[in-house]
């Protein structure tokens, strides 16, 4: 019965429901967006991982990241697959490799490349076609899915985000300097907000959620409530038909 409610909109509109979650680095988007998707039975698309995969592929080929066309060619050639707990790039599990500081430091050059952004956005739209999905990134509510049914902008003050990052790293046994983390984060915020195409921006029709002082569980609860307020309440008997499960393959 639960699924029937969820799929009513798709039958009516002929497409999946999209929930976009955008926000700055360190706002805790990734983990809460993933939990939200699982809580409401939607697929999850981590678009930051896509930019990370293209960055890693270019670094491995020792390419000059300023070569706009060559980098764009790589972006359109790589095959990125999402599984429950791993990201696979051209057949290799790169879940850890895409999160190294080297990749994070270089990613701006890839994310600034308008041709790369175009192919990433096209792939994001193909991937979500016909599915209910939570997509997370910087430009999801503004560029990738301007007609999304539910748009959330998740944020927190820079200080709170930096504090969270420091404690996350401490939990992993890595000691870092708070001021340095804050400075690097401010730099990423500048790069993300000043980007000419696809820069971090709050969609005018999005709901902003400030997460300062909230636990991840509390953030999750508020997101579930926001999505719930946008979902249909009546049941369509047609929706009782078996659901189609698509593989989580990122089409080229
Ligand atoms: O979310 P995550 O920190 O993994 O994203 C890494 C980088 O990828 C961001 O700092 C941003 O530069 C870029 N990105 C983007 N557009 C998206 C998602 C991520 O430009 N939709």
Itemize the secondary structure elements and their pairings.
Blueprint: H1 2-13, E1 18-22, H2 29-40, E2 43-46, H3 47-60, H4 68-77, E3 80-82, E4 87-89, E5 92-93, H5 101-111, H6 114-128, E6 133-137, H7 140-144, E7 150-155, H8 158-171, H9 178-194, E8 207-210, H10 216-230
Parallel strand pairs: 1-6, 1-7, 2-6, 7-8
Antiparallel strand pairs: 3-4, 4-5
Account of the 3D structure:
The chain has about 250 residues and is of the alpha/beta class. About 35% of the residues are buried. Residues about 1-15 and about 235-250 have low confidence and may be disordered. It has a single domain (about 1-240), classed as 3-Layer(aba) Sandwich (Rossmann fold). Helices cover about 50% and strands about 15% of the residues. It starts with a helix and ends in a 22-residue tail after the last helix. Strands 2-6-1-7-8 form a five-stranded parallel beta sheet. Strands 3-4-5 form a three-stranded antiparallel beta sheet, covered by helices on one side. Bound molecules: cytidine-5'-monophosphate.
In short:
The chain is an alpha/beta fold and 252 residues long. It contains 10 helices and 8 strands.
Q: Keywords for this structure?
A:
252 residues, alpha/beta, Rossmann fold, 5-stranded parallel β-sheet, 3-stranded antiparallel β-sheet, 10 helices, disordered N terminus, binds cytidine-5'-monophosphate
């Amino acid at each position: 019965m639960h699924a029937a409610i969820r799929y009513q909109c798709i039958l009516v509109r002929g497409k999946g429901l999209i929930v976009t979650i955008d926000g700055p680095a360190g706002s805790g988007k990734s983990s809460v967006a993933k939990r939200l998707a699982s809580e409401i039975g939607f697929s999850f698309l981590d678009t930051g991982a896509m930019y990370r995969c293209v960055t890693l592929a270019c670094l491995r080929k020792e390419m000059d990241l300023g070569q706009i066309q060559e980098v764009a060619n790589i972006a359109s050639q790589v095959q990125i697959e999402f599984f429950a707990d791993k990201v696979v790039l051209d057949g290799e599990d790169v879940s850890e490799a895409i999160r190294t500081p080297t990749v994070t430091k270089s990613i701006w050059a890839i994310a600034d490349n308008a041709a790369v952004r175009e192919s990433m956005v096209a792939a994001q739209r193909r991937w979500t076609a016909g599915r209910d999905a939570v997509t997370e990134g910087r430009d999801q509510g503004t560029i990738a899915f301007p007609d999304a049914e539910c748009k959330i902008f998740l944020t927190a003050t820079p200080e709170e985000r930096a504090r969270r990052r420091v404690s996350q790293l401490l939990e992993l046994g890595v000691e870092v300097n708070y001021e340095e983390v804050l400075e690097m984060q401010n730099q990423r915020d500048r790069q993300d907000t000043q980007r000419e195409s696809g820069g971090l921006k709050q969609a005018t029709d999005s709901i902003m959620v400030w997460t300062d002082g909230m636990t991840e569980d509390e953030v999750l609860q508020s997101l579930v409530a926001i999505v719930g307020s946008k979902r249909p309440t009546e049941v369509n008997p047609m929706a009782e038909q078996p659901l189609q499960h698509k593989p989580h393959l990122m089409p080229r």
